[in-house]
Design a protein that fits this description.
Layout lengths: L1 E2 L2 E2 L3 E3 L7 E4 L10 E4 L2 H9 L6 H17 L4 H16 L7 H13 L5 H40 L5 E5 L15 H9 L4 E6 L6 H12 L4 E4 L4 H6 L5 E4 L3 E3 L4 E4 L2 H10 L4 E4 L5 E2 L5 H4 L8 H4 E5 L4 E5 L12 E4 L6 E4 L2 E3 L3 H8 L2
Parallel strand pairs: 6-7, 6-9, 7-8, 9-12, 10-13, 12-17
Antiparallel strand pairs: 1-2, 3-4, 4-5, 10-11, 11-16, 14-15, 17-18
Helix pairs in contact: 1-2, 2-3, 2-4, 2-5, 3-4, 4-5, 5-6
This protein binds 5-S-methyl-1-O-phosphono-5-thio-D-ribulose.
Amino acid sequence: MQVNGKDYHTIWVKETDTETIQIIDQRFLPFEFKIVDLKTPENIYTAIKEMWLRGAPLIGVAAAYGMYLGLLQIRSENEFENKIENLAAYLKSSRPTAVNLRFAIDLILQQIKNERSIDKKIKIAFDTANQLKEKEIENCRKIGEFGLPLIEEISKTKKGDVVNILTHCNAGWLACVDYGTATAPIYLAHQKGIKIHVWVDETRPRNQGARLTAFELEQEGILHTVIADNTGGLLMQKGLVDMVIVGSDRTSANGDVANKIGTYLKALAAYDNKIPFYVALPLSTIDWDINDGVKEIPIEQRDEDEVKYVEGWDGSKITKVRIMPENSPVANYGFDITPAKYVTALITEKGICRANKEDLGKLRSI
Ligand code: MRU
């Protein structure tokens, strides 16, 4: 997608040095556009943990490149046996909720396991990471195609009047490699000339909605309005929301959806107001080993400073201010779980399905 009229992915191999991975450093958006070089698995670990990059599909692709960079440091087959499990465990520990991390690392382990030569393992890891990147782009493109008719249908019902879509956090291209998950149908609808308007939840504590989703939509010229997190319920009661589309960090095999904290409350409000609540996700975000997402999906708890302080632009630089008493305790849960019964449907790269074990299983086997 575009930044200042130029096409970007969120992550790529440096053109002049295949041992360097480059990313858009999301800590500075929307105020400053910075690209950062990542050269070691430790760099990748930090970039994921400290959220220089974030969003489930992007975390997965970054971790795959992290495995490649780690393999570059392993010089013999003996060393490989000792180090590879540690490398995988280390990268997996960078963030706990987004299952794409595990998916991508296990994919690399699987692909390299039958090859003895280190050089060949490195080449396989590099190719696999590149292929995963391309696959996630393609997944998002298809999610867009499957999701588009849902917007078209509402537009038709409203006789071409504006379709109001509410989204939470950033499940846009910045959370993926390109297009985004929740935003893919939105971008396609916009390209097709369907009138749309997006309500963007600010998404405290880190404000990924206000900072990243609003930035993306603005760059693409899509009508949008940023709202404080608690506004969605009122808008739904007033008939100002036609549909909700969010992403997911991990969805269990029975269709329970982990996504950024606050998603569950929007799903409840949508359910109460009979507004369709869609979750757009690639199948790499489904945890087939978990059958009860509410009980079993691990929820990340992050540093209390993310709640205690707010970060913004003071006119010349990014600055942080404390917004509460210094010594009040803080809890900072990163994600919540929306039970499957509140999800109207899942939009995946293989099609749309109900959020239940049977329908998801059918989709998996296509
Ligand atoms: O903590 P973050 O910013 O990584 O959380 C991201 C989200 O919750 C997204 O909605 C999710 O990863 C979907 S990604 C397309």
